[in-house]
């Protein structure tokens, strides 16, 4: 039986389809839903000489965080407020999805087949593939 569904959201159309699928599944099973948006942290690149490091990637601005929260609110608008939780985490997407599912005791994970990386470019399923391989629970990949 499914009691708790974790849905990974990144703003792409497939992640929005995944949220709709999870909503339908939650209605059928009476499950609660956690919507998760994962922000990738800036990367530290070693320059090698003089033990220097360079930070690659942008720092998150308050405007970006507000946009993420608005997007999660929009996705959650059709869900009963008592059945949905929204979480924003910083980390590597697949690893964060799997570890949060463990931490929350989610019975099921729903992800889109392809999503967007922070630069707005399509990922070719690398996150969903990694989640399926490491989740240790049922995962539905929505196309």
In short:
With 143 residues, the chain is α/β, with parallel strands linked by helices. The chain is built from four helices and seven strands.
Explain this structure to me?
Helix content is 37%, strand content 26%. With 143 residues, the chain is of the alpha/beta class. The chain has a five-stranded parallel sheet, with helices on both faces. It has a two-stranded antiparallel ribbon with strand order 3-4. A hairpin with a 6-residue loop joins strand 3 (43-46) and strand 4 (53-56).
For the termini, the CA-CA separation is: 24 Å
The CATH homologous superfamily is named HUPs
Report the order of strands and helices. EHEEEHEHEHE
Which percent range describes the beta-strand content? 25-35%
Largest sheet: 5 strands, parallel
User: With helices defined by DSSP (H or I, 4 residues minimum), what is the helix count?
Assistant: 4
CATH architectural arrangement: 3-Layer(aba) Sandwich
Indicate the mean pLDDT. Answer: 85
Computed structural class: alpha/beta
* Total DSSP E strands: 7
Poorly predicted regions are none
Helical amount: 25-40%
In the sheet with the most strands, the strands line up as: 5-2-1-6-7
The name of the CATH topology is: Rossmann fold
The dominant shape is globular
CATH class type? Alpha Beta
Q: Radius of gyration, rounded?
A: 16 Å
Tell me the domain tally. Answer: 1
Domain UspA: 1-143
InterPro entries: Rossmann-like_a/b/a_fold, Universal_stress_UspA, UspA
Pfam family, one: Usp
Family: Belongs to the universal stress protein A family.
């Amino acid at each position: 039986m499914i009691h708790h569904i974790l849905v990974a959201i990144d703003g792409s159309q497939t992640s929005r389809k995944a949220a709709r699928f999870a909503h339908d599944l939650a209605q059928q099973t009476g499950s609660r839903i956690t919507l998760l948006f994962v922000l990738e942290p800036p990367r530290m690149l070693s320059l090698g000489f003089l033990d220097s490091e360079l930070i690659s990637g942008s720092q998150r601005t308050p405007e970006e965080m507000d946009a993420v929260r608005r997007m999660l609110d929009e996705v959650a608008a059709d869900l009963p407020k008592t059945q949905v939780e929204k979480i924003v985490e910083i980390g590597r997407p697949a690893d964060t999805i799997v570890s949060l599912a463990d931490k929350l005791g989610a019975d099921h994970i729903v992800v889109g087949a392809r999503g967007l990386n922070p630069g707005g470019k399509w990922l070719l399923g690398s996150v969903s593939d990694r989640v399926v391989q490491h989740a240790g629970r049922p995962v539905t990949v929505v196309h």
